[in-house]
Amino acid sequence: MNPWQFETTVTDTRTDARGAWVALETTLFYAEGGGQPPDAGTLAGAPVLDIQRVDDVVWHLVEQELERGALVTGIVNDAVRRDHSIQHTAQHVLTALLEDEYGIQTLSFGIGSEESSLEIETDVFDWNQIESLERDVQRIVFENRPVSTYELSSEEVEHTRLRKATDRTGTIRIVAIDGLDYNACGGTHVEATGQLGIVHVTSMKKVRGNVRLTYVAGLRALTAVHSFRTALRTIHQTLSTTNETVAARVIEERNLRLERDKEVKALEARVAKAKVAAFLQEDNYVITHIGKTEAETLTTTIVERIAATGRIAVGANHTGQKLWLMHDGTHDIAIGKFLKRTLDDLGIGRGGGSHKQAQARFESVIDLERATAEIVKRLQEGMVSC
Ligand SMILES: [Zn+2]
Q1: How many domains does the chain have?
Q2: What separation in Å is there between the alpha carbon of 150 and the centre of ligand 1?
Q3: How far is the CA of 188 from the centre of ligand 1 (A)?
Q4: Which of 33, 208, 313, 352 allows an S-S link to 340, with CB 3.0 to 4.6 Å?
């Protein structure tokens, strides 16, 4: 018999905006609580979508309504349960070590679908400390310390040993990690620390004056390592680097890129100057520049320079399928309104702007060319209302 399978009876039902919920005579499903997400699984063959405890009743959100009194089979997804138990027990170990070895309290924690997080009460924690913490955790993993769960009456609990005081009365569930932790906890746990595999901290961020660590454990750690390796392999193949050389190389590439951007800008300014000088030979009120293959930055630089000479500048860029209109403010044409009206008349493109500058984007170069031709025609014929 599958230990994750059970037979039971529906004792109560209710519906709300999220759907149909059922309560069961007995259940093996873990309801969300204590930073741990709910179990997954099926009930009467259909997926259980959520499990919540309300006033000591465990409610299961099901895909299809079930009748009160119905005999049903529940199956808990053991892979999901195991994963949650690993992430949750890893949190016990991290919290215990942070407090005992570093004097840092855990303020809150949660298990996400990919990563789990821990907010800790400190404003200084660095990556050397994280590596040292990970080594401490690994030692506890290798020692394969038993994790035991048992229930005690409030009077039997050794309150001074508790990691966190509890004001619960009656029966209290204790979770103890041999020689490391003694805690009142209702979550699910692994049987021994060896089952955690690896506990790997993935990020560290400052939040609200504290530090938030995110981590992965067990199979999630392996998945994370696979993802890092895939990303690194792509970088290594592209840049011919190794783990040892990649950081310096990326910084070098970034600096080269910044240098080249500066050079490109200087070249664009020279090209723009030359092109505008050629335009000025023409005695036109409207000057049109069409950039078929150039960068958008070059088109806009040319447009700005034409406008600075007192003409109305029209610049089209085929690569970005964009159009710019600009004048120096001495013309009475409200260029943004003019552009918008022309596009509305044509029924293509989207754009607009202010009195002296405007821009539009098109879905195709054909639309861009049509709009450019119409705009130039209207400007030359003076078909603009001011
Ligand atoms: Zn726990």
Answers
A1: 3
A2: 12
A3: 6
A4: 352
